[in-house]
Design brief:
The longest helix has 28 residues. Strands 1, 2, 5, 6, 7 and 8 form a 6-stranded antiparallel beta sheet that branches. By secondary structure, the protein is of the alpha+beta class.
Length: 411
């Protein structure tokens, strides 16, 4: 079974057994979506896989719109970026009928809906402010990455819906006026492009499983007799480890290049793990054979920008003069940017080592891809500048590692 089939089975089983908890989803989403499956839920948000019916009229009208979010129904998310606002799933024209989204048919689209639901422990005004701002921040980071040609999902729309029906909303409004203390009922939904495939973590686990099936572990291990000082002869397939081959090393190198491209665009992910990087073209059974004429190459996509932040872009525009370029990069801002990027790399490094045993060669390949991306930026005049940026980040990474070790030793 190849990675694509395995992921489809895992996702289908997961969505059938999972049940949401906390406040109910907005009726606009549950009542009007053709199908709605819960992919994951955390303390902050729920992620849904939704199939939404789009009428032919909405598709024809949407095809003639500009699609840049500059129409009247848009939400400003900062940095001069506008995102289409979705007031209803039956809205005309519908921003969800974007051509880049995966479609099941001419009249339906499959999208990912990230719903930030209300929190009872927060003041209503604060809850609404945080919910909206965090949704806007995630959309802004995704669009900044997309503009810098970083592989990530497209942002389709933003919706702010009540979790109550119209009658329930009227009753809640009356209660708030009489008691003066009400819980927020606003859910903020971010509609993004659905990316089929599997996560890098699932890909590594599938590679380990396929290797284990080829070399099954021995039924019993040799036991040391009393007084025998001979060492046990362990075989590589007798213990749980991570497969290190040309395919996994290539994936690790591409991860480093992808993260470097994101950092160069001025975006800090904040939660870099192998579960937040997807392989959109999982290998088939034939692709696992390394002697093929056209070896398999992974297409990687970054997902889950819920904790992302923005910083100064590393790449200086070619049209800027030398004086403008020097003034735009203050020393303290360069150091601050290097710190954030180093922490991002450290989080990814720890995720590899804690999730995938004995994956040190993969971590080295990630850092190699990251460093060589910056060294390869620009022409002859700016190459040394970007190489210096990479050195500054890696020097700060060493300091972050030391802080991490001290925390582990002394708490």
């Amino acid at each position: 079974m190849h990675c694509g089939e395995k992921y489809q089975m895992m996702s289908s089983n997961t969505t059938e057994s999972k049940a949401w908890y906390g406040p109910p989803p907005p009726p606009e989403l549950t009542d009007n979506a053709s199908s709605l499956q819960l992919l994951s839920q955390g303390a902050e948000a729920r992620v849904w896989l939704a199939t939404i019916y789009i009428s032919s009229g909405a598709i024809s009208e949407a095809s003639t719109s500009s699609g840049d979010g500059s129409n009247k129904r848009s939400v400003h998310v900062g940095s001069g970026i506008n995102v289409p606002h979705l007031s209803s799933l039956s809205q005309h024209p519908s921003p969800l009928s974007d051509e880049s989204s995966s479609s099941l048919s001419l009249n339906s689209v499959t999208v990912i809906v990230k719903e930030r639901f209300p929190k009872k422990y927060r003041h209503p005004a604060l809850d609404v402010s945080l919910t909206k701002s965090r949704t806007k921040g995630e959309a802004r980071s995704l669009i900044r990455c997309k503009r810098a040609e970083v592989a990530c999902p497209n942002v389709l729309a933003i919706a702010n819906w009540s979790i109550n029906s119209e009658d329930e909303a009227a009753d809640a409004d009356k209660m708030s006026k009489t008691k003066g203390n009400n819980v927020s009922t606003l859910s903020s939904c971010l509609f993004i492009e659905y990316m089929p495939g599997c996560t890098v973590r699932q890909y590594f686990e599938q590679r380990l499983e396929s290797t284990t099936n080829q070399y099954p572990p021995s039924a019993k291990r040799q036991r040391l007799e009393e007084g025998d000082n001979s060492e046990l002869e362990f075989k590589h397939h007798d213990r749980v480890t991570t497969v290190i081959d040309t395919h996994t090393l290539s994936v690790a190198y591409k991860i480093g290049t992808l993260v470097g491209k994101m950092h160069a665009a001025g975006v800090i992910h904040g939660d870099l793990t192998t579960s937040n990087i997807m392989v959109t073209n999982p290998p088939t059974q034939n692709d696992t054979i390394q002697d093929t004429e056209q070896p398999w190459e992974a297409n990687l996509v970054l997902i889950d920008f819920g904790l992302a932040t923005s910083t100064n872009s590393t790449i200086t525009p070619a049209t800027a003069s030398n004086s403008d370029a020097s003034n735009s990069k203050k020393p303290h801002k360069q150091q601050h940017s290097a710190e954030e990027k180093a922490v991002d790399l450290y989080v990814l490094e720890r995720a590899f080592l804690s999730t995938h045993p004995e994956s040190e060669p993969l971590v080295e390949e990630v850092l190699k891809g990251y460093r060589e991306f910056f060294e390869g930026l620009g022409d002859g005049g700016t190459e040394k500048t970007y190489g210096h940026v990479a050195k500054a980040i890696f020097n700060r990474l060493e300091q972050v590692r030391l802080r991490g070790r001290k925390r582990e030793c002394f708490g």
